[in-house]
Amino acid sequence: MELSEDPDLQPILLGLFLSMYLVTVLGNLLIILAVSSDSHLRTPMYFFLSNLSLADICFISTTVSKMLANIQTHSRAISYVGCLTQMSLFLIFGCMDDMLLTVMAYDRFVAICQPLHYPTIMNPRFCGLLVLVSFFLGLLESLLHNLVGLPFTNSKSVEIANFFCDPSQMLSLSCSDTLTKNIVMCFVGAFYGFLPLSGICFSYYKIVSTILRIPSSSGKYKAFSTCGSHLSIVCLFYGTGIGVYLLSDQSSFTRNGAVASVMYTMVTPMLNPFVYSLSNKDIKGALRRLHRRMVQSQVLWHTFGTYSGNAAQVNI
Fold first, then answer.
1. How distant, in Å, are the alpha carbons of 67, 70, 178 from that of 263?
2. N or C, which end of the chain is more exposed by having fewer CB within 10 Å?
């Protein structure tokens, strides 16, 4: 389904979504480069942040690239294999976003509530294991949806009420049995929505309780400043994602629902770099140092090129 049937709006939508996509990819790549190149950011929190940025790049690429091609070619068609592939990648990286946000909340809980045990608990091996578990849980969710959606092969031509192969819409199309559909949606909503969100809420309950016991105001601000960015992204991602997934119905889903899908498929990944870079002194410092190194490299290359040119002229 197109976001707008007005042909005059198509070039505007193409430019808007292409700009959002490029900003998202470049912003998240900068976060990854800053974390990987700065020794001050070799901590679990920034390790998870760099993986979140990588998942965001893959997450937005699964939907926006096809949508941009559709707008450019004035076509809304997608093959069955292409649809299942898009849905699978969307679920894998969307679930990684979901689980990494939960893992980052747990990381903040350990850092603030159990600071003496933090280096022992959040060791590199355990952090890597948490990222792998997040990925495999995404594979599990993708497999579940694909198994349910296999009967969809009997349909030659159907219309999906969204701008991409939305898993909830695919489930509504492939499941003629309402009971099966409700069971799958409730299981996925509980396991991949309610449980991670409960873990985040519990972590922040313990974090707030610990922060309130800190005597100095500066100590409270410093402790909570590391959580504000994460909390804002959690509210935006879960608020739009769970709402669209659980409340969507193929018969009543409108363009307003598709616009709401844009919020968690495009706007949230785009805002992640800005939220973390603008409110985090460590990231801002790392980006400044990265920019300084890039400028110095350009100066060195320019100097080397000038010297090589002069040497060639002398030899001649």
1. 15, 19, 28
2. C
| Euclidean distance between CA atoms 71 and 259, whole angstroms | 16
Residue with tokens 């679920």: 91
C-alpha 303/C-alpha 173 separation (Å) is: 63
Q: The tokens 């499941």 sit on which residue?
A: 175
In order along its 316 residues, the chain shows pLDDT tens digits of 777 777 788 888 889 999 999 999 999 998 898 888 877 788 898 899 999 999 999 999 998 988 888 888 888 888 888 888 898 999 999 999 999 999 999 999 999 889 899 999 999 999 999 999 999 999 998 988 888 766 655 556 778 877 888 887 777 777 666 777 778 778 888 888 889 989 999 999 999 898 888 888 777 777 777 787 788 888 888 877 666 665 555 445 566 667 777 877 888 888 888 887 766 777 777 777 777 777 777 666 766 666 555 555 555 5
Strand locations in the chain (E): none
Q: Of the candidates 198, 201, 158, 188, which has an alpha carbon nearest to the alpha carbon of residue 248?
A: 188
Torsion of CA 78, 139, 123, 118, to 10 degrees: 90
Distance CA 2, CA 46 (A): 37
Number of H helices, E strands in the chain: 12, 0
Specify the pTM: 0.84
